[in-house]
Specification:
The chain is α+β, with helices and mostly antiparallel strands. It is about 40% helix and about 15% strand.
Length: about 80
Amino acid sequence: MIRSSQKHPGSLALAVERPLSAALGADSQTAFEMPGGSPILTLFPLQIGSGSVDFRAAIETVRSRYPKALKKLAELP
């Protein structure tokens, strides 16, 4: 999934799709961990919500909604 950052006062913001945030149990108050030391941005919610079944359903929803973007991501070196 390719996302663009959005201007937010004093910083930038990334939007997380609703099915993924719901599967992770994330809302506007959820804190995320962002490990450093890499040019790749990885986010980990500090409180994991539902289970793997809900997460798989969310991934399928995102796959059906963004098939072209996910295919392009898979082709990146």
